[in-house]
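re: ur msg from earlier - yeah i can do the 1,3-dihydroxyacetonephosphate complex, just paste it... oh wait u already did. ok heres what im feeding in:
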Amino acid sequence: MFEKTTWIKLPRNVLVGHDVLDDLGEAVGELYLTGRPLIVTSPTPNDIAGDRVRAQFDDPATAVVRDASFEAVEDLTETAEAVDPGYLIALGGGKPIDIAKMAADHLGVGFVSVPTVASHDGIVSGRSSIPEGDTRHSVAADPPLAVIADTTLLAEAPWRLTTAGCADIISNYTAVKDWRLARRLRNVEYSEYAGALSEMTAELLVENADMIRPGLEESAWVVVKALVSSGVAMSIAGSSRPASGAEHLISHQLDRIAPDKALHGHQVGVASILTEYLHSGENGQWAAIRDALAELDAPTTAAELGVDDAELIAALTSAHEIRDRYTILQGGINEEAAVEVATATGIIEE
Ligand SMILES: NC(=O)C1=CN([C@@H]2O[C@H](COP(=O)(O)OP(=O)(O)OC[C@H]3O[C@@H](n4cnc5c(N)ncnc54)[C@H](OP(=O)(O)O)[C@@H]3O)[C@@H](O)[C@H]2O)C=CC1
Ligand SMILES: O=C(CO)COP(=O)(O)O
Ligand SMILES: [Zn+2]
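and the outut:
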């Protein structure tokens, strides 16, 4: 008997383009939501775009979050209970979007994502990534009901945050390789659609790498569309598998071992060079990944990440210890081999 079921949750409205922030009210109107919105933001996006958002709604409330933590989710949930919003509007980078995503889930309301930086694909996905002590939790939640990505605003955001978004997309190459490996060796559920979409998204970004430049709205357009596709791939898969493999495990370990030194996207980009080498050896695509990252001004070495060689090696040798996700690093890599791959790829110096 055929008993397979799939439940794909996707945003209903995705609006990307020039000055679309001013169409937020209309896009939200099409969702037939009721009640007042609670705008969840952080200081900088609130300064940049808070008033433009508030002007489009009757009686909006605002909560400004300052860090991404479970306490911040609890605080926001408490604030929201007092405000009794019909829905949340997350305005900003990954921090307010992740917090709003989880709080919306706790409150049983929907949320709309209004990214002000194109820093990673969490701005459109149904997962939050929250650090706690020595570990980091990837928490499932519903994806946004709508995504409103204003390319005018995104093109003005700090360039390094955009290059981090690009690198997060490039890392999809190795994430999909890990997923396929897990299917072959552990029979994990694999979606051809999600795998192909994720890979194609990375390819499109690399093909357009020469037109991704600071301050250009066209560049913000290419990057944010790629982030949306990657988020959709995760929604189809029902997990972050299409966009998160061993390179993300290494990055999560770097967050713990060398906190706040580099951006998520930059870390997964460098880690992707390493895991591609591990998958395919010296003749694989690791140099192509490195060159694409370099073309996009993203880091390609531990030094460019601001991370010590020893920290990089510690993250690589311990990445398999976190999370039950089969990858090329299953069983771990010893220090000698880690130094060899990091040296061969030029990520650490000889
Ligand atoms: N859900 C997921 O899959 C993932 C989630 N994450 C999470 O996302 C967060 C990191 O994402 P990131 O986007 O870097 O986080 P932030 O939201 O902290 O944004 C990065 C910085 O950019 C500032 N900023 C936001 N918009 C603008 C703008 N338009 N112009 C200038 N500055 C701006 C912010 O200001 P301010 O300091 O005032 O907020 C902040 O300093 C972490 O909490 C991480 O755990 C990371 C990867 C994946
Ligand atoms: O960053 C992500 C995808 O790019 C999400 O990955 P995690 O599930 O590893 O947090
Ligand atoms: Zn990522």
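cool cool. The pocket of NDP (ligand 1) is lined by residues 42-45, 48, 68, 92-96, 98, 116-117, 119-120, 122, 125, 127-129, 153, 157-158, 161, 263-264 (CB under 6 Å). ping me if u need the other ligands too
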